[in-house]
Design brief:
Layout: H1 3-11, H2 55-64, H3 76-92, H4 97-106
Helix pairs in contact: 2-3
Length: 107
């Protein structure tokens, strides 16, 4: 739950929270220079990145990893599994070969 959701859920009938807190501004940093109009609590903006995998490897990644699967560790195992699959696919697509070759020569 987000801090606002926790505040809303537990402040109703609970004396643990200061009731003078305005839920519309709860969690907003007043010293932040970002315009209030730019704040949109319903969206998360993820920057575009270039993934050098082949389309076959991208399809394999989506088959092997379900980011919405149930987990009890806040997504840690999903992240570890994703890194492992990405590493394997990057080796298969020969993206990491120059790096691995340099490590081999240096080692």
């Amino acid at each position: 739950m987000s801090p606002l959701q926790l505040y809303t859920a537990y402040s109703q009938g609970s004396s643990l929270f200061d009731e003078t807190i305005d839920p519309d501004t709860y969690g907003v940093d007043p010293s932040d220079t970002q315009d209030a109009d730019d704040l949109d609590g319903d969206r998360v903006v993820i920057p575009q990145i270039d993934i050098p995998l082949t389309s076959t490897s991208l399809q394999e990644l989506s088959v092997q990893i379900n980011p919405l699967q149930e987990c009890n560790d806040f997504g840690k195992q999903i992240y570890i599994d994703t890194v492992h699959v990405l590493y394997t696919l990057m080796v298969t697509d020969r993206i990491l070969w120059p790096i691995l070759w340099l490590q081999y020569l240096a080692g």
